[in-house]
Structures are given as C-alpha cells and as structure tokens.
Amino acid sequence: MRIVVNPVPAEYLTLFILGAGIILMIGFLGRAIARKTSIPHIIWLMLFGIVLGPILGVFSRQSLLSFAPFITGLVIMLVLFNAGLNLSLTKLLRSMSKAVTLSLVNFVVVVLLVALVMYFIGFSIILSILLGSIVAGVSSSAITSITQKINRKDKDTELVEVESTISEPLGIILVLVLIGAILLHNYSLEFISTALISEFSIGILLGGLVGVLWVPLMGFFQRKRYEYSYVASLALVFLLYVGVQAVNGSGPASALVFGIVIANGEGVFRSLHYRHETSFTLSPESKDFNNLVTFITASFFFVYFGTLISLTDYAGFIIGIMIAIVIFLSRQIGTRMALYKSAYSTQDKMIVSSMVSRGIGAAVVAALPIVYGIEGSGAFLDIVFAVIFVTIFINSTMVLSFRSKNLQVKPAAGE
Amino acid sequence: MRMFTGINYTFFVVALIILLGFLGDQLFKKVKIPSFIFLILAGVLLGPVFNVISQGSLIPFLGIFAELTLVMVLFHGGMDLKLTTILKEGWRAFLQVFLYIGISIALVTTLVHFFLGWDLLLALIFGSIVGGETTVVVVFPLVRSMKLRNGTITFLSLEAALNSVVLVILFITFVGLYQSGSINLSSAVDSLVSNFSIGIIVGLVLSLIWLYTLNSVKKSEYAYVLTLGLLFLTFSLTNLVGGSGFLAVIIFGLVIGNHKFVSAMLKRKISIRPLEKQIFTLQGELSFLLRTFFFVFLGLILSLSYRTAFFGATVGLAIVVILMFSRYIASSVSTFRSDLARDRNLILIACAQGTTPATLAILALSYGLPLASSFLALVTYVIIFTNIITTVGAFSIARRPSNAVAAR
C-alpha cells in the first residue's frame, strides 16, 4: 500500500513556480517591447534561457536534451495547429499563387545556398541540406510582430504572412523526413521525395477529412453551448497527430490542415455546396484560448532552447552569423525571382525581401538531430541560435531604416 | 514516422484523458454523474490494472502539479468570493462552513487518532484534507439544474468557495506545526503566526501593486499571461520571504475579484471588469485541464490490493458517515429560522468532494509526510462516496412530486 516517494524540497517547488512566473512575465513584456522596438519577444526568452542554462548552470544540457523529443513534438503540433487556426482561407486563396511561388522559391534558394556554404565548410552533403532545411522557413510569429510594428496591412505584408505560414511548416516537415532518411541510411532523392509527397498527402488528406467531419460536430457543441468544446478539438489534434504518424503520414501537416479546416468551416462547407442552418465557425473564445495555450507553450520552449546553448562554441556562432547573411542574400535573390514582372512595386519588394526572421520553426527542430544521435550535428543548436538572433537583428534594422526613410510606413497605432 | 513512437504513445494517452474529461463533463450535464468517478476509474485502468503508465514515472511531477493546481484553485476561489455578498448575506454560509469543517475535523481526527492510532498532528492534517470541502464543479451545475431559490444558490456557492480556502489554511497550519517538530508549541505557533502575517501583508502589498499594473495594461493582448505570471510571482516571492504563498494567492484572487470594492476603498478609479471576466473564463478552461489530469493521476497511484481496498472502503465509509452527520448539524443550525430550511435536504446532500482534498493528499505525499499513502487511499474513496451521495440524492429529490412541480 505504501508509495515510496522522495520528497521534493519545498524550496525547489517554489523556485520552479518563480521561474514559471518570470517566463510568463518576460513573454508578456517582450511582446509589449516588440510593439515599440520591433524586436520579437523570443529574443528575451532565449536570453533568459541562456542565463538559466550556460551562465548560472541551473539546468544541465544533457538532462534537458532527454526531454527534447516530447517537447519538440508537442510544440510542433501546437504551433502548426495554431497556425492553421489563424490562417484565413480567403486570405490564402487571394494571395495563393504569389505566396506559394514566393515561399517555394525562397525556400529552395535558402536550402541550396546554405547547404553549399555548409558543404564548403566541411559538413557532409546530407547534413548541409538538413541544416539548410532547418533554417529555411520564415518565422510567422516574428513576421507578425514586425508587420504589426510597421503597421502596413497591405498586399506585401499579407503576402509575407501567408508565405511564412507555408514555409515554416514546410521546413519542419522536410527536416523530419530528412532525419528519417538519415536514420534509415537512405539518402536517395527518390526516397526523400517519395516520402515527402507520401507523408504530406496522407497528412493533408486525413487532416482535411477529420476536420470536415469534426466541423459539424463542433458547430453542434457550440450551438448547444457545451463547455470546453475547444478542449475536445485539442484532444482530437493529439489523436489525429498520433493516428496519422501511425500510418506513416505527416502528423504536423495533418495538424495544420485540421486547424485550417475547422477555422474556416463555414467557407469549406459553402464551397462544398452544403446547406446548413447552424454556424460552423470556430468561436472566438476557442481561438483566444488556443492562442494563449500556444503562446505559453512557445514561451517556455524558447527558454528551454536558450538553456541548451553552449556559450563556448564560438565556431558554431560564427557559422550561424555567416548563414544568417547567406539567408539575407538568398532572400534578395529569391524574392526578385518570385516577384519578377509582378504588380509589386520596388518598395514592396524591398519590404518583402527584408523579412528574414527565423523563429520557432527553426528552433523546434534544431535539437532533433542531436537527440537522434546524428553524427556531426553537435553544433546545430548554437548555429541555429545565432541564425535566429542575427536574422531578427537584420530584419529589425531594416524595418527601422524603412521607418527613418519614411518608406510609406505609418506610425504604429498608439505611438 | 517511426522516430516518434514513444511520443505518439504519450500523446495518445493525453488525448484520451482530455476526451474523457470532456465527455465526462457532458455526461455530468445530462445524467448528473460527476466526471471525477470516470476519471479516477480511467486512472485505475491505466495504472494499477493494465500498467500502461507506471506510478514511478509520475511521482516526481506530482508535487509540482499539485502545487500548481492548488494555486489555480485558490486564486479562482478568491476571485469568486465577492466581499459585498459575504458582508450582506454571507453570515449563514460562514456559519455553515465553520460548523461543518469544525465538527467534521474534530470527529475525523478522533476516529483516526483513537481507532487507527495515528499521531494527533497527522490526524489533524488528515482531518483538514477530508473535513468539509464541497466542490464547486459538481455543486454549482447541480444546484442550477435543480431550479433552487436564489438564496440557496448563493448559500451553496459561497460555502463551496469558502471551504476550500479555510481547509487549505488549516492544512498548511497543521503541516507547519508538524514540520516544526512540535518541540516547543509556543515557538511553533510563533513561527506559524509570522508565516501567516507575512503571507497576508506581502500578499496584500503585491496584490495592490499588481492591480495597478493590470489596470494600466488591461487592453493589451495576453494580459491574462501577465496575470498568470503575477500569480506565480506572488506565490513564490511570498514563500521566499518566509510567508505563506497560498494565503497570498487567496488575497490576490480576492483583490482582483473585488477590485471595485478595493478601488472604492482606495478612492482610485480602477476598472478591470472585462479583464476580470477574461481571467475567470481562461482560468476555468485551464483549471478544467488540470483537474482532469489530476483525477486520472489519483486513480493511477491508487493501490488495488485487497487490504488497501478493504481499508479504504471501510474507513472511507466511516468518514462519510461522520461528514453527513456533521453536515446535518451544520445545515440545521445555519438554516435555522430561514427560507433556506426548505432546501435543507438539498444542502445536506450537496457534499460532493473533489479537487481540494485530492490536491492536498498528493501534496502531503510530495512533502514526504508519514501515512500520506493512506491519506491518498482514503481520500479517493471519500471523493467517490460523497459524489455518489450527491448524485443519488439529487436524483431522488428531483423525483419527488413537489420538487418536480417546482422544477417545472
């Protein structure tokens, strides 16, 4: 009958809750600062992680790395589900062709150029492509806070927002496929492309199907004023993620598509010519709660990511700075290629090409190669950390320079 | 993707637990069987029966989980206590809480001290765990569905909000006395008084600062995240300066929930009503998730051996008899010569226990108190039995012709 317990000292419990309180406050204050300075809150959270990890040594990197598969899995699922919920289908369709072209061209150019640089530095081809894929996606949360700052709700900012919601998930999914290929020692292009297409197709199909089935049920729960119907959607994402992975599909893709379908239920059913009397729109409270859950989870994740950084690896930081510059240059090329002969003005193109911030998409997969014991990936965490830091710095500086040149950038509300 | 196999398994269990909590909640609304029973049962199936989740993997996290849940519950409870309502019509609810808790703790302590031979202080700690909670999540929907008089609803709501707060204060008092070693009673009482005074003063000062802070950022996105951060800071900072964090959290909840009253007293224009509403809703959703996992954990760590089951069921039953007896006396006195007396039977059966005793029992376990595993077994049975009494009692009262007419 007796359960053997090693009592946890009360001070540890208190310190744990103190840490949680500080993280939440940094998250909130970071967002407030972002509104004034265009520096995204993730920077402060990562810095706090560095203070807790490498500087004060409160947590050891090795013990924290053992939680990485669970933490990254959870964060990937929540972030993509939230990205889906916040993606307006009308917006997506309006800028679909340009946004898809922009994200694919930029994505491919970044992967290729980063891989090239890494290969010349001395990494193997597959590791170079893996790192290229990790840093290829533009961060949607960082972009949103920056576009909020420059207060432009024009077609160019909408284009970048849609681009980031495509390229960030694309990066995550490609990295997972590449890690799978490395673990199976099958590097053939045929295997990787088939796996990518097959996993994407299964994920999109099942995510869409379950979403379409869930929307009327969710509408019913909301109409009947069932409490916690959002919580049921969350549980369904977990089940869908697991189910899709079990049939070799992409769980992240399914979470994203499921989110898109339930957030745009009304539009989806209208396009299917289905007549119904009840509302199939996700309630604003559900959306708010999901944003909150994702924000809190992501805040804790960035602190966690900061604790994993090793401050002694100068080579990693230097490579990261180089890659950030390569990303910036690639974006200039990619954007001009994708928007060639388009209706976008030179000024629009300059704004679009300045949006290079990397964030949660890169951070969340950066630890996976180390966790799965992929040889030669030991410096990835430090490289990615430097990439996030420098790309955000470049992006913020560009925005500030636009503002000083008064490039049609109106002052943000409340200033 | 094969590499996430272990994670898939965890996600699957998490999804099942959340779904079970959601379905249990809907089932409760339809058939009035509290979801706690299903959740504990699910925990028993996942743990002791099929061994899907091992107890050992959970134990290190239980302390922090219990402490977080308690901080949330107390903050929510504090916000729900409206000082103006208490001052106007709350004295009967106050009387009910103090009589019910006082009598039941005295009798439960007597039972376990004299019949089971437990140390007096440990018996008092156990008494404060099971002695007199009525859980908001079961009692509120139940009283609303029974179409009761407004006075009775206020009475039961106040009782439910107040008793958790009183029980936690008693629990930390007795644990404090126990941990001080009881070598010298006067010094133990001194340290306790200082712990409480610091808790109240620091809690009050921080809460007032936070109130001003929240008032200035009330329109910001994610102001709730800041509130949550401030809540955790209040708890931990008060603890670190030697005060009672739990008391400080109750005060923070009271100040936020009664900000109009506070601002009138301070002669300042503070209005955070929309934020307060948002905090209350989001806190409800987060508490729902925490509660759902909590009851599954309770089932997970329950021992199913014949000896434990027999011990839990018999002593648990004796405790429930004591609780009903105490509640009968308390409700008879507190509703004497009032309209509330007409709903006395319903007040009597609204004894379902839930989150507070479960959290306190697990907290006792994480503090390493001797007999804590017996506390846990007994608390589980008391929760199950009291929920059965409330459910069956509500059914039988609703089926009486006079009540059916009233309900119509």
Characterize the structure shown.
The complex is a heterodimer of chains A (415) and B (408). With 415 residues, chain A is mainly alpha-helical. Chain A has one domain (11-404): Na+/H+ antiporter like fold (Up-down Bundle), CATH 1.20.1530. Helices cover 76% and strands 0% of the residues of chain A. In chain A, α6 (96-121) packs across α9 (155-183) and α9 (155-183) packs parallel to α17. The termini of chain A are far apart. Chain B is mostly helical and 408 residues long. Chain B has a single domain (8-51, 60-407), classed as Na+/H+ antiporter like fold (Up-down Bundle). Helices cover 82% and strands 0% of the residues of chain B. Chain B is built from 18 helices and no strands. Chain B has helices spanning 5-31, 35-49, 55-80, 83-89, 91-115, 120-130, 136-145, 150-179, 185-217, 223-240, 245-257, 259-266, 273-300, 306-334, 344-349, 355-366, 372-399, 401-407. In chain B, α9 (185-217) packs parallel to α11 (245-257). The longest helix of chain B has 33 residues, at 185-217. Chain B is globular, with a radius of gyration of 21 Å. The termini of chain B are far apart. At the A-B interface, α1, α4, α9, α11 and α14 of A face α1, α3, α10, α13 and α14 of B.
Q: Structural class, from helix and strand content of chain B?
A: mainly alpha
CATH overall fold name of chain A? Na+/H+ antiporter like fold
**Which CATH architecture of chain A is right?**
Up-down Bundle
What structural category do the secondary elements of chain A indicate?
mainly alpha
Tell me the domain tally of chain A: 1
Distance between the termini of chain B: 56 Å
Percent of residues in helices of chain B: over 70%
What is the CATH class designation of chain B? Mainly Alpha
Q: Would you give the CATH topology of chain B?
A: Na+/H+ antiporter like fold
Low-confidence stretches of chain A: 409-415
Secondary structure: number of strands of chain B = 0
Element order of chain A: H for helix, E for strand: HHHHHHHHHHHHHHHHHHH
**Shape by Cα distribution of chain B:** globular
